[in-house]
Structure formats: C-alpha cells, structure tokens
Amino acid sequence: MKPFFEQQPLRFECTRCGRCCVAGGDYYVFMSDAESEAIRSYLQLSRRWFRRRYLERLEEGELVAASGPDGRCVFLDSEGQCRVYKIRPLQCRSYPFWPELVRSKTAWQREARRCEGINRGKAIATDRIRKFFNACRAG
User: Fold this and answer.
1) pTM higher than 0.90 for the full model?
2) How confident is the model at residue 118 (pLDDT cuts 50, 70, 90)?
C-alpha cells in the first residue's frame, strides 16, 4: 500500500506564524555540525558565544538548538519570526513533511490543528515530500 502522502495531494503554505517553533518537553530542533556552523556564520557570532547562547548537547550527544523555558526556539525573535529562516536546519525546512506526520491522514489532520499552513496553498509535489521524508528518516 502506498504511503498516505502518495495517496492524495498534500497542500502546505508556511505562514511563518512560528507555532511550529514553540514546543517543549522532549521536542528538540536537531542540527548537524555543518548546519550549526552555517547559522553561527550567518549570525556573525564567535563560536564560543554561539555555543553558549544558542546550542545544547543532549545526554546522548546530539546537538540541538536551545529553547527557552516557554519552549520557544532560541532563533525566534520578539515578533515570533525565525532569525535564521534562510538557512534553517533540515528539520525546520522539511516540516511538516516528517515521517510521523505524513504516515497517515489522521496524523496529518492532527498536525493541521496546530499548523495553519497545512491544507492551505498549492499541492506539494510528491517527489519533494518523498525527498524530505527520506532525509528525515536518514538523519
């Protein structure tokens, strides 16, 4: 049987509301060392300051973006806009086409309650969704 995202067109248009950038608990924005370095360079910060202010290492050693006590991503500005949107990590670029969200219609519709951009705008090409899906599973 085909995956849900191949059974019907999925529509998505990011409204840049920032709601997907506010979480908490066990939710993290994972990033590679290369992504971290690109963001640091983009913000024109020293490595030491950037690591101290913007990054955390989990017990397992994974590199993640820091978040505030309210669960807001450290890269959100006071208006709720991403300051690194142009070079955001794969995890952010691929949202909402994560395997756990496109596996079923139920999961997709559940996420649509949180994200106003889901089911809005143009249909996204299945090849593009598959690319993000596979990248997320590999990373």
Assistant:
1) no
2) very high
